[in-house]
Please model this.
Amino acid sequence: MKALIIYKSYHHGNTRKVAETMADTLNAQLSTPDGVDIKSLDEFDIIGFGSGIYNGTFHKEILEFIEKLPNMNKKAFVFYTCGYDRGFFQGIKKTLSEKGFIVAGQFSCPGWDTFGLGKLFGGIKKGHPNEEDLKRAADFAKSLAQ
Model:
């Protein structure tokens, strides 16, 4: 299975750590949205999309990238890191489905968050993603390969 993971990690590298763990597990190519040639997506069997959560949604670069995609008959998965997890998958899963993707799975884990009022206290979820979070990310990625 040939895999590509497209991610945006902006503040503390939380999402990058998860993306790298998944990429190692899947032997996947790893890229940010600006590093992907849309024409090359045909060569991949599964494509992952991940970011931190910003104001209740995925990073705008991920969302804008998906909007530019043609209809594709591909498997996909989504993942994110965040300070407070409120199940932020619905919007991106709907958008991917509208683009013809079959969403094979979703993963989330805590990430150090210094946005908003939490910034005054050094943020929340400091130290995340930790080793346990990254093990769960690797286990999730393994499940996609089966």
The two ends are 10 Å apart (CA to CA). The chain has one domain: 3-144.
